[in-house]
Amino acid sequence: MTDIDVLIVGGGISGLSIAWWLAQAGISVEVWEQETRPGGKIQSVKADGYLTEQAASIVMNFRPEVSQFMIASGLEAYKMPRADTTNRYLVHDGQLLSLPMKLMPMIMSPLWSLRGKLRMFTEPFIPKGGHAQETVTEFITRRLGSEVLEKAMGSYITGTLASDPDLANAYAVLPRLTALEQRYGSIALGVLINKVLRRRTAAITEAFSFQGGMKTLIESLAQGIRFRPKHAVTKLEREGNNWRITSTNNRSVLAQQVVLSTPANVAASLVKPLDNQLAKYLAGIKIAPLSVVHLGFPRAAIPHALDGTGFLTPRQEDFAVTGCLWMSSLFSDRAPQGKVLLSTYIGGATQPAAVDWDDERSITAVMEALQSLLGINCDPENVRIDRHYQGLPLYHGNHTGRIAEIAKHLVHLPGLHLEANYREGISVRDRIARAAKVAEQILAYRKL
Ligand SMILES: Cc1cc2nc3c(=O)[nH]c(=O)nc-3n(C[C@H](O)[C@H](O)[C@H](O)COP(=O)(O)OP(=O)(O)OC[C@H]3O[C@@H](n4cnc5c(N)ncnc54)[C@H](O)[C@@H]3O)c2cc1C
């Protein structure tokens, strides 16, 4: 007899959402978290009327499982849709340029040179190619040309994934684009065929946060399950067909199945006594450091219309920031009346040392970009800096191969699951959708 069906180690969005799906199925589940609060990276902070997000600030959804989760969990009622500001800006020649999201207007944008546009039109005629270790730089250059990489796609990889396009595995970070090539021989043809056949695609159908910020999602999930704070797990052992888990506060539990929803390096140290090679694969996943600099200003101090979601910065542009979200344009409750909140990202895999910059240097780097791009003419009246020394896992090198190896090793450790943002996507959307699949695997194992 075990004490519990499933123990989940790590109370970030990955662990909490797996617990939620399991609890729906009537499984006895507990989440052990080393910190005093749930949420892991995700935390919303309200101070002086500004509501800032430490990590995830927006859910960009196109997955039906996530929509289903929102309704069934009751979170639908607390959702706050993104304002109807559809402009997305890129820095181009030191200025902000709005990039249309529809295919033809995008191709016709002044962002591209004539040569770049012609190159894009050749995409359907480029033969299928690629290899398992192909990087984003190689994949995008091969299919769409170097301008698309340098002026747009590269900044998506650095600005939203804190990654490096020269090292990121195309199949791991652009799974839908690479799948279109594999299936239809061309990205453009694939998009077109899916459109004609009205197939479900990866087009974002809704973008939202929650009333009170992302913390509402976390707190609501943690309330519905058995969440145990201050339980730092130090040992994982096989006991018969079950798993014994021990934490620093000398609690020990016997579970039929265990899910490690911790960062990869923590999972590596827990599994090392069980399978040294598995631990090596996990420890090989690098984690990028990054900082988020939240600045509040009077609206009147910014000449720019702020009529969009924010901007991304291609690497050849002369700014230290990788991107900026105009939080108060996205969600009206993020700044006091008459003020704006801009959250800007520095660091990541291409500039890891930036996380060690002191406050003054971090703010100066951000202000240089904001003054130049938005015409801001005063100092910020509100500042908060969130530093993530272990920010986001990097899907670098042969990441898909590494994840496949991890899966092979897990076959020899039945009832053990490794699930966090180092596999199948870093976004909150992907974590919730993946959690549904993991819960299915856990249920299937119980029936064996
Ligand atoms: C700056 C930034 C901005 C982002 N913006 C967005 C965004 O806008 N939209 C989006 O969708 N995503 C965004 N993300 C990504 C998203 O926030 C993360 O990928 C996600 O929150 C990670 O969740 P997780 O549960 O996998 O990991 P974590 O949040 O890291 O959770 C792991 C948990 O394990 C716990 N733990 C570790 N060791 C132990 C132990 N020994 N015992 C017990 N517990 C342990 C940790 O304390 C932690 O709570 C952003 C991320 C960052 C860093």
Report mean pLDDT, rounded to a whole number.
94
Overall 3D geometry?
globular
CATH topology of the largest domain: FAD/NAD(P)-binding domain
Number of strands: 19
**What is the fourth-level CATH superfamily of the largest domain?**
FAD/NAD(P)-binding domain
How would you describe the overall organization of this protein?
This protein is α/β, with parallel strands linked by helices and 448 residues long. It has helices at residues 13-24, 64-72, 103-107, 114-121, 136-144, 146-161, 170-173, 175-184, 187-196, 215-223, 264-271, 276-283, 327-330, 359-374, 399-410, 428-447, and strands at residues 4-9, 29-32, 44-47, 50-53, 59-61, 79-81, 89-92, 95-98, 206-210, 226-228, 233-239, 242-247, 252-260, 287-298, 310-312, 321-326, 339-347, 382-393, 416-418. Strands 1, 2, 10, 11, 12, 13 and 19 form a 7-stranded mixed sheet that branches. α1 (13-24) crosses α16 and α8 crosses α9 (187-196). It is globular, with a radius of gyration of 22 Å. The model has no long low-confidence stretch (mean pLDDT 94). The structure holds flavin-adenine dinucleotide. Residues 9-15, 32-35, 40-42, 55-59, 232-233, 261-263, 266, 290, 292, 388, 391-392, 420-421, 426-429, 431 line the site of flavin-adenine dinucleotide. Flavin-adenine dinucleotide (FAD) binds at residues 9-15, 32-35, 40-42, 55-59, 232-233, 261-263, 266, 290, 292, 388, 391-392, 420-421, 426-429, 431.
